[in-house]
């Protein structure tokens, strides 16, 4: 049985706020607070895959130290924008 969309959003939120490094906790929590509730199934799929990536890689992508994989570029751009506003 697959999980319903609300349960999935809650699971992804928990994965966003409890990461391996504090910087990614802050960045992903802010992103999840701003976008998770409005994401549709395909966006949730992508975000789920993104959350499986290594935190150090994610931080380099968000901070502009390395280019993200093309599949994540739009989502990473949103995170980077949120980071600059903070």
What is the ordering of alpha helices and beta strands?
A: HHHHH
Low-confidence stretches: none
The first-to-last residue Cα distance is 39 Å
Which structural class do you get from the secondary structure elements?
A: mainly alpha
Overall structural domain count: 1
Mean pLDDT: 92
- With helices defined by DSSP (H or I, 4 residues minimum), what is the helix count? 5
What kind of sheet is the major sheet? Answer: none
Pfam families: Sdh5
Family: Belongs to the SdhE FAD assembly factor family.
Keywords: Chaperone
Protein name: FAD assembly factor SdhE
Written overview of the protein:
The protein is mostly helical and 86 residues long. It has one domain (22-85). The chain is 70% helix and 0% strand. It has helices at 5-17, 22-35, 41-51, 55-63, 73-85. Helix 1 packs antiparallel against helix 2. It is globular. It starts with a helix and ends with a helix. Pfam families: Sdh5. One of its GO terms (biological process) is tricarboxylic acid cycle. InterPro entries: SDH, SDH_sf. This is FAD assembly factor SdhE.
């Amino acid at each position: 049985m697959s999980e319903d969309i609300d349960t999935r959003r809650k699971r992804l939120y928990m994965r966003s706020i409890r990461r391996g490094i504090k910087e990614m906790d802050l960045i992903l929590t802010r992103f999840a607070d701003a976008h998770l509730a409005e994401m549709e199934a395909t966006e949730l799929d992508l975000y789920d895959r993104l959350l499986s990536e290594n935190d150090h890689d994610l931080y380099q992508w968000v901070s502009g130290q390395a280019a993200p994989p093309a599949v994540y570029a739009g989502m990473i751009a949103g995170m980077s924008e949120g980071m600059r506003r903070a």
